[in-house]
Design goal:
Elements lengths: L1 E5 L3 H13 L3 E5 L2 H10 L4 E5 L7 H10 L6 E5 L4 H10 L3 E4 L4 H15 L6 E4 L2 E4 L5 E3 L2 E3 L3 H12 L4 E2 L1 H8 L10 H13 L4 E4 L3 E4 L3
Parallel strand pairs: 1-2, 1-3, 3-4, 4-5
Antiparallel strand pairs: 6-7, 7-8, 8-9, 10-12, 11-12
Pfam family, one: Response_reg
Organism: Niveispirillum lacus
Protein name: DNA-binding response regulator
């Protein structure tokens, strides 16, 4: 799952990127409103952390433009002020959640997990597909109750597929959601990760749609 972090404070931005990476996400940084606006318009993010007080362009105007352009990714807004008027303005502009600074990183991660689950139509923190289960809080994967160890890339592919069960996912889409913007992407590696996942899961839940991609569904 891929996250955009739009935050001008370099220390906080670095802390957010590190925490997201350690939690299994791929995170792209944006230090100002102009870059955030462009990246949010052109890249397929699963969620965005957006500071309202960005230089260049403020977060509210960036968010309004995303929503006007039909961009529907979940957005968690951050602000140092935290007044109720700002909260209302942010929600009315299209934000999905709100967090005032200072905050605990654990709370931000929990809010992001919830936003991503809801965006995929999932309510429970434990995602299941047949005998396969993924705990979004810990990243633990089990098959029929037995733990399965995955590499970081295998975990990202599985997590994205578990959030989008029943949908046909192309190799390009999967590639865009498991690699950061500056990573040398190769969609051919998706076939490798899918093959490894099938062997490790040992359950017929990942199906190939010839010429289209892959679909995760219990049959």
């Amino acid at each position: 799952m891929r996250i955009l972090v739009a935050e001008d404070d370099s220390n906080l931005r670095r802390q957010l990127i590190q925490a997201l990476n350690e939690a299994g996400y791929v995170a792209d940084p944006a230090p100002d409103g102009l870059e955030a606006a462009f990246m949010g318009e052109t890249e397929p993010y699963d969620a965005i952390v957006l500071d309202l007080g960005l230089p260049g362009r403020d977060g509210l105007s960036v968010l309004r433009d995303w929503r006007a352009a039909g961009r529907t990714m979940p957005v968690l807004i951050l602000t140092a002020r935290g007044t109720w008027q700002e909260k209302v303005e942010g929600m009315d502009a299209g934000a999905d959640d709100y967090l005032a600074k200072p905050f605990r990183m654990e709370e931000l991660l929990a809010r992001l997990r919830a936003l991503i689950r809801r965006a995929g139509g999932q309510a429970s923190p434990a995602l299941t597909c047949g005998p396969v289960s993924l705990d979004t809080r810990t990243g633990r994967v089990t098959v029929a109750g037995h733990s399965v160890t995955l590499t970081a890339h295998e975990q990202r592919v599985l997590t994205y597929m578990m959030h989008h069960q029943g949908r046909i996912l192309s190799r390009t889409e999967l590639t865009e959601h498991i690699y950061a913007q500056d990573f040398d992407r190769d969609s051919n590696t998706i076939e490798v990760f899918i093959g490894r996942l099938r062997r490790k899961l040992g359950a017929p839940v990942i199906h190939t749609e010839r010429g289209q991609g892959y679909r995760m569904e219990a049959v």
